[in-house]
Amino acid sequence: MTAEGFCRVRKAVIPAAGLGTRFLPSTKAIPKEMLPVVDKPAIQYVVEEAERAGIHDILMVTGRNKAALEDHFDRHWELEQALERKGDKLRLQRVQKSANLGNVHFIRQGEPRGLGHAVLCAKTHVGDSPFAVLLGDDLIDERDPLLDTMIQAQELYGGSVVALMEVPEDQIHLYGCAAVSQIDGAADGLVRVDSLVEKPAIGEAPSNLAIIGRYVLSPEIFDVLEHTGPGRGGEIQLTDALLELAKEPDRPGGGVTGVVFGGRRYDTGDRLDYLKAMVRLGARHRDFGADFRSWLTSWVDSEEGRERNGSNGEPHDGEHLGP
To answer: What does pTM read for this prediction?
Structure first.
């Protein structure tokens, strides 16, 4: 099966309207997308990924208190001039990089009605061509060209494409989940998505393949989302709209292909996984990764590193550090 008359994916949508409640109080005044992952905000990793895939037109769907996102991808003339006067070319280059990452646009979601509604807000900007959706909670290692693979799958099979990843059975209820079948003659890792369910009850998942935060969607998804009612959690679920397209592969824009990803993914969606992402990315940072790995190894084996709880034997959540 080959998609006829396909259009190259040239636009990406990044939903960024969430409140970040799992990271309170840090996200009370700072958008969760701006929380640093080593030495740059999480959202910059996502935009850089789109750029590497050849997508330079990016729409961020934001909400209230997200002005910092716009500031980050704008020029900061005063800071740049100060760095230039000091002759600090390296930091000047780093500051300018975020402002030179493609053509970043912003639109407000208005009210938090779910991922499906956030995607629907992009309809006017996207138009009638396939487009990518990248969620900021999932960072994909730059060595793993997942988005490129998904774009190629969409060009080959048409319809929409979702990224899938095997997760432990006791965690699948935290994700959207896919039931899949083989595609005759397809490359390894490409499957047909037959059904989807958002956060299935424990023991009722059709597989251990979770939907992770990368999509390449046909523009027909907008027509489906416009009549998709609230689903799980009272929100408009993108998974529900994709299910409709998966069940009608012969309709225009129908059919859903899955790309099973086995590469490096950094989950910044909760506090523990955020810390793991910081360690994994910090350990391979080109400037200080070797020193950090050496320190980390020695610290884990130290008396402090072996302490199970706080110094007084009681667990703490970090709120009582200080003199």
So the answer is: 0.89
